[in-house]
User: Fold these one by one.
Assistant:
Number 1:
Amino acid sequence: MKDMHNTHIYFSDIAIRFGHQQVLTDTELEIVSGRCALLCGKNGSGKTTLLRIIAGLEVPYSGFVNTGIGKYHWNQYRQQLRQTTVYLHQQPYMFDGDVVSNLNFSLSNKLTRKKRIDRINSAIEWAGLESIAKNPAKTLSGGERQRVAIARAWLRNPSILLLDEPITNMDHDSRSRTIQLLTNLKQQGVALVVSSHDPVHFGALTDTLLQLSEGRVHRFITSDNVTPIHYRKHLNTNAKQT
Amino acid sequence: MDESTSITLDAIYLLFSGDAELWTIIAVSFQVSSTAILISIPPALAIAFILANADFPGRRLIISVFNTLLAVPAVVIGLTFYLLLSRQGPMGDWKLLFTQSAMVMGQTALCFPILVAMGHAAFQAVDKRAWETARTLGASPTLAFYTVMKEARFGLLAALFAAYGRIIAEVGASMMLGGNILHYTRNIPTAIALETSKGEFSQGIALGIVLIILAFALNTSLQYFQGKGHLRN
């Protein structure tokens, strides 16, 4: 899939509360084609909520989207977000049926049967799913599910891909394969936003390292190649300051 | 041959000899109950889905109301619609009392709460990620709803069969609203009640056999479909 994207979106003033708990306050986030933002933070810091807001699945009481062409209220831009963004749950949901039927879900009904089969085959090849293509999707392991979910998202050709803890509880091999797929997507121009407890594994993939705490995003490193050393250095510096 | 064996054999003969009166009764039953269930399914499933997925004031009260309606006897539903449809009632001008339409109304009121209550339970059992995944993969709300229905299909089928089983076998509403008119509103349960009161057990047993075969077919179908499902994670 060669489609190149040209996304540069700036989210600002995002705020949401659940009951009396203020989860996000005036949060800002920049999303750029072909770049990966890694979102770190403690449990309950609001990482998942922020991703869900960007995906249009959660409704903030405040939030603006600046596309470079205009600045919109989040509500005005929600439909556009839904069309251009794919969100992957921490444990991706698999529909009843085999892997092929799950991949088929992403394709438009307007496509001919032959085109569908071609697209599905290319997704299977792209994500290395040949050996599990006919397996019932609900019986797959965590790593296999994640790869199927990424392939399903790839078929949608999204501008923005949001991943919530995509490599949690994976072995080394599954983790490498998942990160390789994400690297491919990034090279194709997809903007990635990844939340993770364990940012060290995303070193080579990450362009911007963000930390979410007290309901706000703190951008502390932007470079073309953030390495785990950068992250560790930052944590050490923070620890010394406090 | 004792009397009960003789009656049962008569009943089987009636059933398989193509007795016109008997098969008209069976046809009325299926026609009325199938119409009632088809009318009920779309709104009942929509309500069940909304109750399972949306959060709004009064939601719990609505769920309680539908659960309570499950326990309302058919004869009370029959009485209510009888009062509404009788000449002095608010819907008396429609002249529907003692028609198949009146029976459909009564049976719709009977199966609606079953479809909502059991449909709500079926939709609640589906992981919320199913809806979100469908939507994030570009599905319209209608397609996402259809997708969630597919995920909940075993529970929804159980709801459908339970609802159909209830209305095809109920006497109270059909008797009061249909009037048990031969070739028009006489269905299986009202015919069984009438024939039994006359001491004509053969036709009653023949019709009873039809109901038992139907119940068996519905349950076997449900088992078949459920057996094809994979374990959920």
Number 2:
Amino acid sequence: MSSNSAHYVAPIKADVVVDAVRLGEKPSNLWLDAWRDLRVRPLFWISVALVLLVSVAALFPSLFTSFPPSGQGAADLAKSNAGPEPGHPLGFSFQGYDVWSRLVHGAGISLTVGLLATIIGTVIGVVMGALAAFYGGFLDSLLSRVGDIFFTIPYIVAAIVVMTVVPREFRSVLVLAFAIGGFSWASTARIVRAEVLRVKQSDFVMASIALGLSRFKTMVVHVLPNAMAPVIVVATIGLGQAIVAEATLSFLGVGLPNVVSWGADISQAQASIRTAPMALFWPSLALTLTVLAFVTLGELVRDAVDPKSRAQR
Amino acid sequence: MLAYILRRIVQVIPVFIGATLLIYFMVFGMPGDPIAALFGDKQPSPQLLEQLRERYLLDQPFIVQYLNYLGGILRFDFGTTFSGQSVGEVLARTFPVTLRLAVMAIIISFVLSIVIGGASALLKGTVFDHAMLVIALIFIAVPIFVLAFLAQYFLGVQLQWFKPTVGANNDWGDLWLPAIVLGFSIYAASMRLTRSSMIETLGQDWVRTAYSKGLSRGRVIPVHVLRNSLIPMVTDIATNFGILMVGATVTEGIFNVPGVGNTLFQAIIRHETPTVVSFVTVFVIVYVLVNLLVDLLYGLLDPRIRYVK
Amino acid sequence: MSDMKENPVSGANISEPLLKIRGLKVSFGTGKKAREVVHGVDLDVYPGETVAIVGESGSGKSTTATAVIDLLPGTGKVTGGTIELDGVDLVSAGRREMESIRGREIGYVPQDPMSNLNPVWSIGFQVEEAVRANGLATGRKEVRARAIEVLKQAGLADAERRLHQFPHQFSGGMRQRALIGIGLAADPKLLIADEPTSALDVTVQRVILDHLASLTREKGTSVLFITHDLGLAADRADRIVVMNQGEIVESGPSRLILENPQHPYTQRLVAAAPSLASQRIQAVAEERGVEHIEEVASGAPVIEVRDLVKEYRIRQGGFRSVPFRAVDGVSFQIPKGKTLALVGESGSGKSTVAKMVLQLESVTSGELLIEGTDVSQMSQKDVFALRSRMQPVFQDPYGSLDPLRSIGHLIAEPLRVHGVGDEKARQARVFELLEQVSLPRELAWRYPNELSGGQRQRVAIARALALKPSIVVLDEAVSALDVLVQDQILKLLAELQAELGLTYLFITHDLAVVRVAADLVAVMEKGRIVEQGTVDEIFASPQQAYTQRLLEAIPGASVHMAGH
């Protein structure tokens, strides 16, 4: 190699094999790999545990407490803002209710509203976004405009208006869920539209149509599943945000009447913040931890399925 | 560029009409007596009832009502509050405080998200990055009213670093606590966006070309990375604005700042629906305008939009 | 082929190499995940000479080059060996030192002109940056004047006006010229050109490389040229270095390497590189005398196209739209068992023709007859049945298979859609097909992202064959593959054609591939067929100027390669 007309030939080691098939031990695709990434992260399991804990509390509150959170005979005004006692680990609220019991029972409302609102918002968003992207043209412009209109009204504001206007007797869980979900679908729709547009350009879509599959079936069978990853991330984080929305509305006094809600408890406790700060602290903690669990889960899944950050690992 | 501006403005009009129509429909278009809906459990005074019937033309068909309402908006007549004041007047009086609060909060949030987001991007994978992620997640998860109370209690009452409530003295220096609360509640999501936008830009081919020319890091990062990351960040401002306004409502309420948000806050708590509707309308108008401005800014920042081939 | 260059310009010491690389090792990843990708490379570049590093993807050629200029991506770093430029050790050079070396001593021209220019700054800004950073001029006026000079030298006409324009307003060739200008702006001693023209059309490629060659000859710049194209290396370089899997397998003067390769890898590379002198790939079966490909097929053509037109309407802002003819009256016939190549540069309309034949785009006017029947007369049901007789294989191996479905599911899909057989029968057919394309059975339970590009294309071919079609439309099916893999796939396609009596419509931009893969060829330009005939005729005596230009632009045209 020291002269430039030399002809160097490396020692021949092995036969030239072209394009050998080299498979990993286990099958791998986007979701399988994401799962393998997630299951080794402790933060993932902590979030999952929290979510499960809150869910169980929501479904079976009697497992956690035997004291009723509200209603007849549950309150003992003499114990207003009193501290912890045996059987009442977190003390009493301003009105004399058991704080721990109210925490446990509050989970139900938060999760129910959160879940319903997210399902409604996601379904509407996915349908609108997918239709706009797959069929394009006029439908796309129309649906995008509609999305813009809903995007312009922040969902909490719209929910406030709806809940203020609806007469008290009609304020049900379903109405509240629709108020939140029915106005938060626009951002999901935008994401879905962008993803479907991206996937649509892939050759496998053309291949599918060349096979004889109808455009609609191609969209449902091949395009949508590949566009779902960011939707799942956003829906998970959105669940957390919907729970916050419910709490905010309760805090403002336009939530659901006659239910145990963390937001309402926080609102009540603010008056005595200087004398009995703990009554404010506990529901705040419960709310924060629950939302944190969902938001963290969403961010972790995002990291696990994002092809760019995966490529760098 | 001019074509782009005009096109954007034209596109905004149907959205504006659609949004106001939607709000109006939610309140007045539902089946049932709108007056009852407006007042819930309260009993309005007869004069007010008469005023409202006149104002909202409740005997007319819905579309006439809406057009009347729209006409009012275009004349800057947003109706009256329960106490009889014109909403326009109330807005004029309370707007400056909210503006101060908003500006302070935006600056705090902006600085935090660029600095922390940028540093996280450059120090990707380090302990700093992970720590900042956890902190951001906490701020995303904690609802703003909880944050407000915590701040009020610890920073205002216990440590006495700031005034726990604001009230009449609401100049720049008095608004620190609510501005911090508002700013911190927004920065977290922005910071994540700045971070991922910068990471993506850092990996772009033109960054490598820039280094190959012999440019130093001190030049490449601001000119070729930050400048390009600005584009998605600017669009983020528009989305943030909605959250900012909702947050301002809650924050002003809790800290007793006599701004626009507080008026809305009081109206919500007291179930004064007409006022709520008026304010929400103004809110939507401002949001539409901010989005338009951001779109125009976006056109300025990205020459691909400015100079279509 | 030019001989050893003298260096009258720089007067540099010709007997000492300008760039000396010894035992270079490069690794990616940290800690447990660290893997070495370059395993001890020795390389010399003498003043004024052009050395080409040739290799397939993953060979380490780009990594070696970017290691020299210290621009390794991600977690890459040099883990062993030395790199000396004019006696200065680059591996141990500090950040500031490298910054001053880049641009001034070593210039860099990257591959993809679109992604390598910052879209938000004007071209002038980016050129002026290079001028200022390398101390070529100071003060606004001088810097601007110098920038204009740089662009002019790079061959950009109207440089003054172009300064204010943005990258997206330039064509691909113009952008690449700008990048070359930037790379050479400070008259560096060494220019590293990393596949500088592979993203461009072949005629544009030729013009730009000619220009680059004259510039470097004039200034006496040494060039380290990275490419996957052996013919290109033969044309443009004095010496060739062949890399495979992170090691140099052979190196020496270009002509020697091509006429007399010694290492088995190089031999295979040279044999597989399609060039003008190649012969049509004959299927193995044919050599046993099954059917001689020279025979003219009798009977009606399987595909017949008459005056095919495709017109789009392009929206022009506001409400106006202008018509655009992507395909403007195309006619050809393909006899049974033969391959017709439709060749042209980007924008020629060849892909659109393929899509019309596949019924993926509607026909604006003209006749399309498949196996004698006019397609426009067919009912929906007939078209559905037609699809089972005609299947595609597309270009992008990374996008033509649904990443969320297993290989077995994907290959069986055509059978499911057309209701062929039951579950068991379909599974058996999947195994049969995998065997036909030489892939192991186990793949049926695996996913596309576990396979390489060539393997995915084989899966795509298997899927295309599932319904036993008579026609396969190959739209740039081998364009994204490495040379050896491409050769493998083309041989597979030839075998399948002989075995199953398939008719191929082969779309490509690469005339050299046409030589080895097709019987008939039609050259397209701007929506029209410029010339068509048998491959032998067209290559031996092209009639039209455009065809001649295309043929001349094929790299390696003048070199006689071993085994051809």
Number 3:
Amino acid sequence: MHNHLYLPLLIPLFGALSAIVFARKRRLARRIIIATIAGHLTYSTWMLVSFATNPEVPRQVAFAGGWAAPFGITLVADPLSAIMLFLAGLLMLTTLIFGFATVDRRHEHFFFYPMLLLLLFGVSGAFITGDLFNLYVWFEVLLVASFGLLTLGCSRGQAEGGLKYVVINLIGSTLFLIGCGLVYGVAGTLNMAHIAERFAGLPAGEPTFITVLASLFIVAYGIKAALFPLFFWLPTSYHTPPIAVTAIFGGLLTKVGVYSLYRVLGLIYNGELPTLSPLLLILAALTMVAGVLGAVAQMNVRRILSFHIVSQIGYMIMGLGLASVFGLAAGILFMVHNIIVKTALFLIGGAAEHISGTGDLKKMGGLAKREPLLAGLWMLAILSLAGIPPLSGFFGKLVLLQAAITQGQYLIGLVATVVSILTFFSMLKIWNEVFWKQLPESAQEPQRATPGLVVPGAILVLMSLLIGFGAGPALDYSTLAADQALDVAGYVTDVCGATGCEPPALGQPVDPANMRALTMDIIPEMDE
Amino acid sequence: MVLVMVFVIGVLFAGATYLILRRSVVKLILGLMLLSHGVNLMIFVVGGIRRGKPPILGVTEQLTPDRTTLADPLPQALILTAIVISFGITAFVLALAYRADQAIGTDDLDKMTTTDTF
């Protein structure tokens, strides 16, 4: 039992509630919010370190209400969860600093920051739950918070983009719910360890009903993660809310979808992963190409960056599609890099947009001379995104390409390389238009950048540099995370004990002291 | 019984799909509501329909849990959760649709293209 697993949920929840209660006292509310994020970040840092220093404890498990697995809801944290929790906390911190500098008072008055904390609450829950239906509930928690953040203020653009975002995400959730129901019908359980154990006993290799179920989850999470061809809602909606919201959405929300794909395909559908690998690789390649080509046509900072979110999701799915520990480790390392750098780009580009008063590339310019620090940070961030050493992007892409080539998947490697070059091209477009060229005659004079606009981006660019210089340990850690994410037997043992999750054999009298199970055993019927 | 339910679920899904593909926001929302009803019924059927069986047995009884002696209590709990969630979200979407109608001045999805990128 590791009851501290409730902390990353309780801290944001109580932080949000007290911030709502004290909303009228603005300074106090802000302090509560900063303290909450600091608490969450401290906890997740501790968890990250504890997995690195205690390799003999690969997972930490908590049983809600004292109900042993597979009953009740189980919370499970492994290195992958720890990485994601830490990144969520870090992104929240930078978004918060940026938000204090840019978000207007009316937003703050209408609970902008408490909603950010509730978003963190939902995201943290999604990262540490060990129950499939509970994951659905966490998705809804984070979705409702994101709906609020996206539509707060409700300008015309927000109403249009928000409506599309809400509807497509609801349909995605519904598909996820259908998946949950069907999994329950087939496996008779919703605990991820128990499902994994039961599915692992089925004959592998041949496409079965389980393969169909796995594909349903790919579609459901694909909508959340903006996978080709389900990504059109993203560039339509992400440029409409305040910049701070776009930054946290762009960095975090789509990656919750990717994380769920990693978790569910790596654990529950582990046996189906080889069957689905070609499909995932094709989807990954199409996502990369569609995203990067979509960005070429845009002339607005945040619209360009939104399309690049889509394109980078392709790389992460490529890591999963390689269906090996090395491939998944590469995917995780790339995801860590991308979460950090993508948010940095949104924050720096957003700062440029904020001081210029517009996000239209044609009306911006001359910022390299006025704001050399901002320009330097942008240059570092785009070099990292494109994959230039010693920044984190180089190692993320290098490991992915290595994994692809060692497994003989040359085509996806080629696509990934070409897309990289195109990515750099469209990032340079922003550089040329926003920072390098002269300010157009007709444009209004930009304001000065305040520290609150520059510091968040600087923190994240620094993190990217750190990962670049510490690429060895970072890869070791993501290999550990990938290893744990694909280790079904270890997961089952850690959650349900050495005897596995299965209840005593059917028809046998059960010792009341040892009673665990009353689940419907439906799987044998499938074999008939 | 199951056959009837399956038919009902099929009709709900078909109606939902038709409504979601309409251009009006209100019909779209009605479609989403129908869809969630269809999914709830589907979970109900998938969990197995057993009439007149107890959902929980005492500890001392001889336990031979199978589909003939026991009704599964879990699907109803899942459905209840899903109903509550979809109720809350429907309320939000209705409020959003109302605000969108005020901000945009139309109910036609084809006219909401100012933020599109294609």
Number 4:
Amino acid sequence: MFEGLMQNLVFGILMGALYGLAAVGLSLVFGVTKFLNVSHGELLMLGGYASFWLFTLWQVDPFVSLPAAIVFLLVVGAIFYKLLFGRMVRLTEGEKIQKTLLVGFGLSLILQNLAIHFWTADTRSITTWYSGAVFAFAGVRFPLVRVASMVIAFIAVVALQWFLQRTYTGKALRATVENWEAATLVGIDVQHVYFLSFVIGAALAGVAGALVSVGYSIEPTMGMSWTLKSLIVMVLGGLGSITGTFVGGIILGLTESATGFFLSLTYKEVVGLVLFILILIFKPQGLFGTQGR
Amino acid sequence: MHRIQIALTVLLIAILLVFPLVIKSDSIINLAVYVLLYVSLASSWNILGGFCGQTNLGHAAFFGAGALVARNLWFGGANLFLSLLAGALVAVALALLIGVPAFRLRGVYFAIGTLALAQILYITVGNTFSMISSIPAQDLAVYQLAPRYYLFLGIALLTIATAYVLINSRLGLGIMAIREEEDAAESLGVSALKHKLIALVLSAFFGGLTGGAFAFYHVGYYPQLTFGPEWTFDSMMMAYIGGVGTIAGPIIGAVFFVILRELLALKVAELHLVVFGTLFILVVLFLPGGFMGVWEKMRQALARRVTITPVRQQGKEVGKAEIG
């Protein structure tokens, strides 16, 4: 019983790291641009398929092809920004949220159905020679691939944090989050900052997607569920804090696995959503601090 | 309304009333049923999403709740109309559950909250009611298409009429003022929370009613079907493509959607959604008024030309137009 619970919680943490990574990307974009990109889950799906096809067609190891997935999503993100989202930078905050929501939704519908059309609706995953490798500690099993995925997710978040704290461009990004008008006044090219944060967000989704395709599985319709989880983690984890969002993802992973263990596996998918609505009803002031009002 | 608009509306309703008496093909009536269903669903979404400007991503929850409750009550022997009403009221209760907390906050909370609610119901209903729900044999033996058609027609007309009366009322002006500029409206004494909730309740009520009609119409389906996100997204796209925040917009959008889907479905299965998605993005970015907006612009341009003509002639008289 106890070992079973521990095992579940470990799986929850491993999964949660990927939720965190996905949510960090969404949160970065929302924080800087106030774009609510609901096609974030579809970007993740594209990253997953990039990794899957590189492995299936050319036997490129998914961990080796990670940079390729990142570059692919940087390009995809840049195209979507130039073609669609970049047109909405001049709107007021409320209009931005609403319009990007609608455009993102239309985009996710297109990407989802194109993916079904070209790649079929089948569930896919990458099986490498080391996929089955597991190491055990105190009776709890740790699948090698998922642990490696968690480490990579962690490195990506730390790297992002370093970029935001230590580099000049990162500081410009944070300044834009604080106050874009003041940022413009001190000479920051806010348009460029918007573009940059959008493509970085897309790249983070790409990394998350590639990792999902190794340790778990991908399908063309996975986007909706990943977008919703990222949104919930973003709101619950508190906007503006990268670390907070990442930890929020792990908490969601833990909550899901605990629900799967104590209640039933069928409600695992629902628990995060219920949590979100309960907090919305009973403790709306507790989840976002200064944002949202 | 102009006299000519009233005449056209009456004529259209008359045609719709005699439609099943003249057309004997079941497949065409089924198509008409879907048009009417989407007219009701898109128009009900539009009451909140269009007139009040609050993007509801969980309309499927209201449609599904209406369908689930009405179908089970009706199967249990309750009066059809009472079953429909009960379904719609359950939808309203769900709407208030999410609307009251979410509308106290601005920004993303209502959109995420409604999407979350719809997905919770979608997954939970899929897990709880995993058996196909079919109309019982004794009811199926007397199944007729015409009453279903008239039920959908009635609900569509009721939804449109309600939306029409609403936007021409003081309440409706308040609702639209919230959409335009919430702070300014509040400063003039228009309660944002109250007006948003009224729009939400009406929207959910008619969404639920439409769901109930679907439950009365459809012979057999998995209960999860009615909670699927596509009900929300289809009606939202119809409202936008036709012209969001207008009475005629969702109607035109629904007719366009069903016909285009019918045409495209013959050739390419899921690509009709790619076409709609593209069209939807184009409308949101470049034609915020949808078809209705284009029509309005054309009419204005036409009107301008008519009034400008004499001015040009005047110009000619003084010799200015000789250059051109």
